[in-house]
Design a protein that fits this description.
homodimer, 724 residues, mainly alpha, 4-stranded antiparallel β-sheet, two-stranded antiparallel sheet, 29 helices, 6 strands, 4% strand, globular
Chain lengths: 724, 724
């Protein structure tokens, strides 16, 4: 890629961004779109335009985002979102502080070094102006390299300092959220797994109750034995489906009264495959029938499940936060693989089917999943390398000659050359998260947020290995493997040699990500179009319309690894080609601004883990830092700089830093500290309500009369035993 | 070593053993020796000869040892001793079950293989009869090797089965001891370390009290802030020394009245260096003066210490066992490196100076100690190798020609040849334990039993690396290093080649250890002689006599690694030279018998850790098993047996076994399970008494009146503050 195609890429990105911004200003003002641009506010029953002047000031949202406080974010979107902003601002801080020192120092140092064109390392193909500004332009063995070495130290220490402060801050945020005097159900409950088989004269429930009553005579409230809900859930889902369809059919019928004949047309459908085959029936009657059929079936199945499908796992409720916190952390049984306890997640996060999984089964599943992920990481690299080698224009022209005429158009050629590889990469990465979420769930983790963390960790390694290292070594992948096989020590050196050649690729990648990515994010063009289409052609009922604009959450699983990839790229290039730093800073500044808007107005968090994501983010930023330091070591060796060993303390420091962070902070993110749990509550907790909040939806019924029935069903276990 | 010198060695060992046994029968019957042979019973106020017929039946002790139950051992010597016997009987079981199958199968298989003298691998020097019975005698690539492979599997599975059963049993023993309805002080206390600096308007004691009262409002009893007792201890030791000397001087004076003049001779001594220089003084007066001088000094220093030398650590007492158990396991502070808690050890085990050591200081100390130990392990090998190369008779004759005439005596030559290297080795190993205990203490561990465990673990690695591997590769040490340097993979192969050559050395080593070692153990010749000498010439007072026969404890620090070394040796040779198995079995059978006697009658345990030694023993036996399996792999490769890869599952199985043991049992040995702690107590615990039992001896005074004074001193902190 030459300099002009780089500028073209930047320019088009910027133009797209501006267009999207204008679109946003225009569209977000229209009242019909408010469910797309302000769903979080609407769902909280707030005025969508609260605080904004009704005059369509196109930058009002910026002022609002900048003036919002961390408190606002926590109120509107929870601690996890606030922690995500800590991440964005910390990285932004690292880049700004690095840039302030590195840009004015390193650029002149590199540009003024008199070298011939022979050290043309930075970009593939022809020599470009960008190269003059990079470390590749400095003579081999030059004493100017001292400046680059000091820069490496500066970046590292800035990162240590800001990460340390951020960890402290996040820990305080978590502590503040957990000490909150508001009653949160999950703070009073623990999950108990691996319960040994009960004795013959005992039901599972009696066993659990007796066990915990003995240990916690004063604070034990009640237990809820986990049941195998597979059947109940199936019936319940069918029932809910029919209910929705009934409402829909009724809406259509009501509609037809208005538009067509006054008596209306009763909607009909065929009962066979896909509604195409089978006998034609009156939909409303049919659904009513089905519902009436399923309700008693569901109730019967619920009773059977509660009585007969009890599993070796339970939720236990305590009347005290401190007891629940200690119970979650303490060893209960002499055999460690029985009666294992852990803190309960929020009810909405519970993954019920994973609860009864056995101690060793979980362990084996975990190792198997790790093995699969490791294999996938390795084998994904091969297609990625092919794509990145294949999607150069020369190759396209060679292998797909029919494209030749299009490709040879000059304007198009520049655009294509600029975007093709990056686009291929981004599309490629879209298929991964689902797989990783599935794999993480298969490990047996019982909470959504934990699964998101696990998947996000795996996704990070994917992107770093496959995108960063894969693309860098891409063209020469197979040669590289041969070299590394011969001499494993050469891997670092190889990476260091290949890095500069891809500087512009990654510059474009980052720019594309923030201009186009964040532009799309803010303008919400895609959800907007989908919503309007759905509303026009599909949605018949209120509920359907509401589902059509459901905003979803921030999506940490892919967002955080994506950002971390940018961190990795920018850090690794920060000293070699400091020109990348402003792009990185812009990425995180824009991200902060636009996501602040989205978090306050759009996204609705689907869970709250009180910042448990942070230790993972911190570790991975340090890992990126380590990769940067190791690559720099390799780069200085290539530059034949005799003082390269002076860099060795840095990777060691990074490891110590990670270790100390882990020792000082991490345990509090795994467990609730007692000094935090012992704060007084605003009100006496309503234990009955807490207990009820954990009942899975397929068991909870909305009729008040039915509550007694459920109560019955829970304790029917012991009663039926005594009657039989 | 040839066959005759092996037999000589065995014979002399046996003769020594018989002599020592006869000595024991004779000496233990004499009433004057009962404090040497029955101190544990005497200290417990029991009749020394209880249960034994007064007729000096020389094998009465054997009958008694065999008929004693595990319950007896726990009552007389605690759970730790009982766990040690589980270890002895488990290993004995492994050897007996292995021997029953291996001896009748492998010996004929090896002996009847027709090989020439060319495969003379087993013993250095000339061919001997022993070699015929070993795997070395089987032809290269012979299908008879299948028998040896199956034997390897048999030994491994026997070991897994018995170790698993033993771990279960030990876990039950620990649970039974911890559920005991008797009140044990340490179950109500926790150690708190890394307490952050108190605020200005708070004393340390107030800070600790407030903190724990908030978290445990119902069960918090009281706290004891750790103080820097260095000065107090020094004064107290001086005081105690003078008190002892005073009693002695008075005894001498009283004695002189009886024997000499009726008015007696007042004992005198010189006050200068070693009592040789300086002015002569009346001892009784002098000591009385000193004591009267020190008592107020001690009291003043105690007050100052309690008020001003408070450290960042404390003991916290709870009125409930469950709370103490959960408090020891739970995270208390948001910053993990503050307010760290752990279960308190018994008062007699406390290492006070290690308590206030900082979180990171402890960590750094630990790594430094590990590094030192690793270096010592490596560099100890070199002198050991020299010793074992030097102490062959040929070398002695060559380097120390003046010994030639002695060495050439035929009888002496055989004995020397048999014993010299083993003796050198045993003496060499005597210097280690002190160093290792010192190093382990320097890690910052706060309890004696934990230090013993840590030192014992290090000692095990020492013995295995230096004795087993060192001796095996000994003669060819430097050649070996060169080979391994060239090809690291050859280490296993090299070990496998060298093993058979040392079979007889280790046979003799094991035989020497049990015949002479256990003979000395049982007969207690050395303590007996020392006691009688001391009583005759040195002891003047009751206390001094009592100190002279103080029996000490079992000494797990050296005893367990010593036994584990035998386990390693016997396991590694079990298939190569099965003739070693009976010797191993005999070692553990004799050990069980003789130590049963010693534990019931002689040794007094100096601490109780409720079997926390076991996980370490288990891990190390599995490590020995792993070494055995890996060496066997190497040995089969040397034998050019094409089915050698069939052994690969075994080491993997061992790792899985160790992992599962760890997961299933280990945590309960680190912490108290709540189901165990929640058992009811026989009586309401006397918290005041529990609290007092933890007061260090230099603070506790035996005068009843002084107790109030101490109470004052503890709470003087806050009072003095309010007065000032």
């Amino acid at each position: 890629m030459d300099f002009s195609s780089f500028l073209t890429s930047l320019g088009t990105s910027f133009v797209i961004f501006v267009i999207l911004m204008l679109l946003f200003s225009w569209l977000s003002g229209k009242p019909g779109n408010k469910v797309i641009y302000y769903p979080n506010r609407i769902l909280r029953g707030m005025d969508p335009w609260e605080g904004e002047s009704r005059t369509r000031n196109p930058i009002a949202w910026i002022r609002e985002a900048l003036s919002s406080t961390e408190r606002d974010v926590i109120v509107m979107s929870g601690v996890d979102s606030a922690v995500y902003f800590v991440f964005l601002s910390t990285v932004l801080g690292i880049f700004v502080l690095s840039g302030i020192v590195l840009l004015p120092v390193l650029l002149p140092v590199a540009a003024t070094d008199k070298t011939g064109k022979e050290t043309n390392e930075t970009s593939k193909g022809s020599f470009s102006d960008l190269d003059k500004l990079s470390m590749g332009h400095v003579k081999v063995g030059s004493s100017r390299l001292w400046a680059f070495m000091i820069a490496t130290y500066w970046v590292s220490f800035v990162a240590y300092y800001l990460l340390w402060k951020a960890y402290h801050h996040v820990s305080d945020l978590r502590a503040a959220a957990l000490t909150s005097p508001e009653v949160r159900g999950e703070q009073f409950a623990i999950i108990v797994r691996d319960i040994p088989p009960p004795t013959k004269d005992q039901t599972r429930k009696e066993q659990v109750d007796t066990y915990f009553k003995t240990i916690y005579p004063d604070t034990f409230y009640r237990s809820m034995v986990v049941t195998d809900n597979h059947e109940v859930n199936k019936i319940w889902e069918d029932l809910e489906g029919y209910k929705k369809k009934l409402v829909r059919a009724e809406a259509i019928y009501a509609d037809s009264k208005k538009t067509g004949k006054p008596e209306g047309i009763k909607p009909t459908h065929k009962t066979g495959f896909l509604g195409i085959f089978g006998s034609k029936v009156d939909s409303i009657e049919f659904y009513n029938e089905k519902i009436n059929e399923l309700i008693p079936k569901l109730e019967a199945e619920q009773k059977v499940t509660l009585r007969e499908k009890q599993q070796s796992s339970a939720l236990v409720f305590f009347t005290s936060r401190v007891t629940a916190a200690t119970a979650a952390q303490s060893l209960h049984a002499q055999m460690v693989d029985t009666w294992t306890t852990m803190a309960a997640p929020e009810p909405r996060q519970m993954i019920w089917p994973n609860l009864p999984k056995n101690f060793y089964e979980r362990m084996i599943r975990q190792y198997v999943v790790y093995a699969i992920v490791a294999l996938t990481i390795f084998f994904y690299m091969i297609p990625i390398a092919f794509v990145s080698a294949f999607t150069t224009l020369e190759n396209l022209r060679k292998f797909l000659p029919f494209l030749k005429s299009i490709v040879d158009l000059d304007a198009l050629k520049t655009v294509l050359e600029a975007y093709l590889p990056q686009l291929a990469l981004i599309i490629f990465l879209m298929f991964l998260p689902k797989l990783l979420l599935f794999l993480s769930k298969a490990e047996g983790i019982p909470s959504e947020s934990h699964i998101a963390r696990a998947a996000s960790g795996k996704y990070f390694y994917f992107t770093v290995f496959n995108v960063f290292i894969g693309v860098t070594l891409g063209g020469t992948l197979f040669d590289s493997f041969k070299k590394i096989q011969k001499n494993p020590g050469s891997a670092v050196e190889l990476l260091a040699t290949s890095l500069p050649a891809n500087a512009t690729f990654f510059l474009t990648f980052v720019a594309l990500k923030f201009f186009v990515g964040y532009g799309l994010e803010l303008s919400r063009i895609v959800p907007l179009i989908i919503y309007h289409l759905k509303r026009k052609y599909l949605c018949k009922t209120e509920a359907e319309v509401k589902a059509a604009w459901a905003p979803g959450d921030l999506g940490f699983t892919t967002r955080v690894p994506g950002d971390l990839l940018v961190v990795t790229i920018v850090l690794c290039y920060s000293v070699i080609a400091p020109i990348i730093i402003p792009f990185g800073a812009l990425y995180f500044a824009l991200g902060w601004l636009i996501l602040r808007n989205q978090v306050l107005k759009v996204f609705v968090p689907s869970y709250e883990s009180y910042g448990r994501m942070w230790p993972h983010i911190n570790t991975r930023v340090v890992a990126a830092l380590l990769l940067f330091q190791v690559t720099m070591c390799g780069f200085f060796i290539i530059k034949k700089f005799y003082y390269a060993p002076f860099l060795i303390p840095l990777p060691i420091l990074s490891l110590i830093f990670a270790f100390v962070c882990q020792k000082k902070f991490y345990h509090f993110f795994q467990a609730t500290a007692l000094e935090v749990a012992c704060q007084e509550l605003k009100e006496t907790p309503n234990m009955e309500q807490i207990f009820r909040s954990f009942i899975p939806p397929s068991f909870s019924t909305d009729k008040a009369a039915d509550e007694d029935q459920f109560e019955d069903a829970v304790s029917v276990v012991s009663r039926s035993q005594s009657f039989v």
